[in-house]
Fold:
Amino acid sequence: MSSILENEKAPPSGAPAPGPTRGERWRNNARYDLPASLVVFLVALPLSLGIAIASDAPIMAGLIAAIVGGVVAGSVGGSPLQVSGPAAGLTVVVAELVATFGWKATCAITVAAGFLQIIFGLSRIARAALAIAPVVVHAMLAGIGITIALQQIHVLLGGSSHSSTVENITQLPGQLTSARYGDVLVGAVVIAVLLFWKKIPGKLKVLPGPLVAVVAATVLSLVLPFDLDRITLDGSLFDAVALPSMPDGPWLAVATGVLTVALIASVESLLSAVAVDKMHGGTRSEFNRELVGQGSANMISGLIGGLPVTGVIVRSSTNVAAGAKTRASAVLHGVWILVFAALLTALVEQIPMAALAGLLIVIGIQLVKMAHLRTARRTGDLWVYGVTVTGVVFLNLLEGVIIGLALAVVLLLWRVIHPRMRAEPIGSEDSGRWRVTVEGSCSFLSMPALTGLLAKVPAGAHVTVELAVDFLDHAMFEAIDDWKRHYENNGGTVVIDALGPVDMNAVGASPPRRGVGVASPRGFAPWKSWQPRHHDTAETTTPAALRPVLAGVSEYHRRNAAQLQPHLDDLRDGQRPDSLFLTCSDSRIVPNVITSSGPGDLFTVRNVGNLVPTGKQDVSVEAGLAFALDELEVSSVIVCGHSGCGAMKAVLAEAQADTDGSEGAVEQWLTFAQPSRKAFLGGHPVARAAAELGFDEVDQLGMVNVAVQVQTLGRHPLVGAAAAEGRVRVAGMFFDIPSARVLEITSTGVSYLDHVPT
Structure:
């Protein structure tokens, strides 16, 4: 018995060798993650210090948040290559919270915000945070950047920042007149290094620009005889660890602060995770898990005296660019910051405040991205962008974002519920024929515009109202119907032409719903499904027999000609089709529809029964083959039959009656199908395969006929030679009309064409 169990547990013979062990994987990844973590550490260090200063928080709070973000969010979060820490996006919010409640109470708010983020993640609603309009997020970051720059320019000039943007602007001229030149020089060095660092040639670019800028400015400040304000630390990293205290203030304001921090931190982290996923081809982010990780990091950071934590795109992109493979890089970067903060804090106290001010000014300016402005202008969202930025800068972040979101929603509703409408005469002004076109979503909100448009149509005309709508409520339907009835009572005629997916007969019978899908293109649908059936006695210039064709031409000119013209313009000098498509003359077969092809793709030859007479007995087919292969150099020849073929019915009926039939033209032509009839009666394998799929005898014969015509082409002197040389491929297809599906016909079988060719 033991031997049987051992055999069951043993891998089968030929099984692939087991993959690397966990230790081997760790060693393989460590050669990428270790150096990447050092690069991210060097980038994060000065940024964390600068963000703490911009947030009016203790300096060590920035380092604590960087440590916790790296270790906790890096270990627990769902985005393996994202690096978390204090972010510029929350500086304005944190500074306002510190001014209102104090630092320790702000830490309590950070803890509560982290708890809320964990609830978001466990509720699996992370993706809902991505529903915020990107233009609002971009404008929010731009507003934060402008606010930071306006604050820190005072510090760079040797002064201190003010509590409001208005004060920072109005006090700037006075600050310029009393500027301290040593601070200006040090800050300018940082700005210059950051702006020009990307242009530095060679291997120096491996070093992070912010670190180089701050180190260079610090060394310069120590060499030059300037009395500069420097960073002051109240004790060590461990002295900065402190428990939070409960906020003393209005609980509504506290709840607002908690929600603001939680939402901004969540949205910024998720947007950063999405951006990071686009930068690498590894494991994708788990957004709900990422929120749990971010929330855990914020709870711990707030509990021990750190700033709020978010995923930071600057550090994350650096991590990916440095070659990181796993989350170990983010965790290790937090460890390096811990080591530095515990052992080398004396170096931090040598950094001039003006150096960090220069760093923050550049960070703030970089949050205003010209690419986002161009996108907002291109998409028509520039007003949303501008209003959001103004609100964030001059009111506060929450109010600015709310105003921006409200404006974005209003603009979206306007675009969605505002249909495009136009009324125009068909032909000349005095033709007596008008067309009214309505496209989009039609609700009672559009009623004033539509009724005003309909009022412009002159009385007594023949009017076609084209409703290409995906939503139509009962009020709008009644307005159109009332106008139609009133207009016809005054001598005019009105035809309602529903082009969209809305069922006009169902309007008013149930609550309105947006139509699913789109209307069938007029080029696909038969005339009878869309051309109005009315008798206009006043119309005498167009013969009744030609009206369907001419109406179709008019529809083509109005709806398709403009879209088709650029493609036809490319074909003005000649055609170069890919395939010769030989099919039946049956009106139900539209080769370009069933092959999703357009002008210039198919060279089509049609006859009754899609036949290829042997011995060059039909000059029309022979001319088509010769021209397609010799002149057009097609790469394939396709024979396509179809279900319910009248020619096959006639051939089958002849076989069953065992008569020669009459000598009419059709009967004479169908003698070329005798080889197909004999193959069918002889039990051709294609007939058996078709029968197994449930097709009747007529369709079985139709499929056998395709297989026989393909064989005939293979023996054809011209086609056979081209096929032997590899210049052309011959294939068979069959269009099943009831299911609108295409099948492949080979010499021995039948199969549905469901696969995507590669």
Q: What stands out?
A: Residues 1-17, 534-539 have pLDDT under 50 and may be disordered. Residues 24-388 form one domain.
